[in-house]
Specification:
Length: 408
């Protein structure tokens, strides 16, 4: 998928528009599985929260991947996409016991991350196999909002609570078939990840009937040319050796599971927006586009960087621009960024727009959410329509307030 393809897609489907390159998704999946080819039983669960379009979920199903879900709605999307419930793991946080039991009834692997729900679920459903999410108390991740394995995190059962956890398992007679951890996103230091894995191995020794160990994900992808990223191949070699050694000690081959989201879809995504206005102030040149943080919130939410390419003038002389949106709040995609000269009407492409872009989009300012397009086998396929005013009104109830005038 090249610049001309993106220009033609924008011409056909309008702007703004999300575009996902299926070939890049497939290559990322293959790179990850190749890095762990030495593992006898490997399972990749794609993290649905990164990008939940059912056509994308169907692509992962065709690749042989399962799904990592965090809500009953994500589970149902996976089932709608044709994914076998046995290949879906459900790892909620702070949800009701009723939701967990409803998901269990669908035949999905349950992963519980707190002692209270574990005891209640195990008491009522002792025959349902359960995975337990452990908090290894390891700080990892590129931003405090995406670091989830540290001691103050709301996620997981603390490793210091293992004795309590074991008492619950014994008292309920429940079957623990998996152990799970997730330290955070944008992991760079492989040694920190391997250190956390040792904690998971140590925890696993307390359970005699495990079927799998889930090491989460959080692998960093590059956000600009020459950017650093997680060395998947090095991690694959080192963790494979540790895992095989543990399995030998444990007495049988377990399944090694990961749940990548951003790693698989981030680089596959482009977000294309049109420049509405070039605004020169006393100190800045603003390029205002027909979008905002209602469609791409990550720069404002996480301070994330997205490379911006001028599709309409890729070889132009570079100038400094602050690229901003049309939302009625501070709404900045990039500040003082070198970009080939931009004119009103030009189309800009934002890179790394595959993960947490549409899935975190909103109707703020009553704007429509854009369409989604999958570039597959050299063709553009619409996989979500652009919203309309009817979509904005859907679900709203208009009250008859005429009687209010009589009382005012």
């Amino acid at each position: 998928m090249n610049n001309q393809d993106l220009l033609e897609i924008s011409e056909k489907f309008g702007s703004p528009v999300y575009v996902y390159d299926a070939e890049k998704i497939i290559s990322q999946y293959n790179r990850l599985t190749s890095a762990f080819s030495g593992v006898k039983n490997l399972r990749i669960h794609y993290a649905v929260k990164a990008l939940s379009n059912i056509s994308v979920l169907g692509l992962f199903q065709q690749l042989g991947a399962g799904l990592d879900t965090v809500s009953i709605q994500e589970v149902k999307l996976g089932l709608e996409a044709g994914v076998d419930p046995a290949n879906i793991i459900y790892t909620p946080n702070g949800v009701s016991l009723e939701e967990i039991e409803a998901v269990a009834a669908l035949g999905v692997q349950i992963n519980i991350d707190n002692l209270s729900i574990l005891e209640q679920f195990g008491t009522r459903n002792p025959d349902v196999p359960v995975c337990i999410r452990i908090n290894p108390h390891v700080m990892a991740g590129g931003n405090t909002n995406i670091s989830v394995g540290h001691i103050d995190s709301k996620f997981g059962v603390s490793i210091h609570q293992i004795p309590h956890l074991l008492r619950i398992v014994e008292n309920t007679g429940m079957h623990i078939n998996g152990i799970h951890m997730h330290t955070g996103s944008d992991i760079l230091d492989i040694e920190v990840f391997l250190y956390a894995s040792e904690i998971l191995f140590e925890t696993a020794r307390n359970f005699k009937d495990l079927e799998f160990m889930d090491f989460g994900s959080g692998f960093k992808v590059p956000y600009k040319e020459g950017d650093i990223e997680t060395n998947i191949e090095e991690l694959g070699g080192k963790l494979t050796a540790k895992f095989k050694s543990f399995c030998k000690e444990y007495g049988r081959d377990l399944t090694l599971a990961f749940e990548p989201g951003k790693y698989l879809v981030s680089e596959a995504g482009k977000f294309v927006a049109r420049v509405n206005v070039i605004k020169q102030t006393t100190s800045t040149v603003f390029a205002g586009v027909d979008s905002g943080f209602n469609h791409l919130i990550r720069p404002m939410f996480y301070g994330s960087r997205h490379e911006i390419h001028n599709l309409s003038n890729p070889e132009g002389k570079e100038r400094f621009y602050s690229v901003v949106g049309y939302i009625c709040e501070t709404d900045t995609f990039a500040s003082n960024r070198r970009i080939p000269e931009i004119k009103e009407g030009d189309l800009l492409a934002f890179s790394n727009a595959g993960a947490y872009c549409y899935s975190m989009a909103s109707n703020f300012n009553s704007r429509y959410r854009p369409p989604e397009v999958l570039w597959y086998n050299g063709e553009a396929h619409l996989i979500r329509k652009r919203e309309t005013f009817e979509d904005i009104l859907r679900g709203q109830v208009k009250l008859d307030l005429s009687a209010l005038k009589e009382t005012v």
